[in-house]
Amino acid sequence: MTSSTTNIAEIDNVSKAYKNGRGIRDISFSIGTGDIFGLFGPNGAGKTTLLKIMTGLCQADTGSVRLFGCSTTDRFEQAMARVGCVIETADAYEYMSGYANLKLAGRFYRGLPRSRIEEALEWVGLKPYGKERVSGYSLGMKQRLALAGTLLSSPELIILDEPTNGLDIEGIIDVRNIILNLSRSRGIAFLISSHMMSEMEMICNRIGILCGGELIREGDVRELLAGGVTMEKFYLSSVEQWKGGGIHA
Question: What are the structural domain ranges in the chain?
Answer without folding.
Answer: 1-82+159-249, 91-154
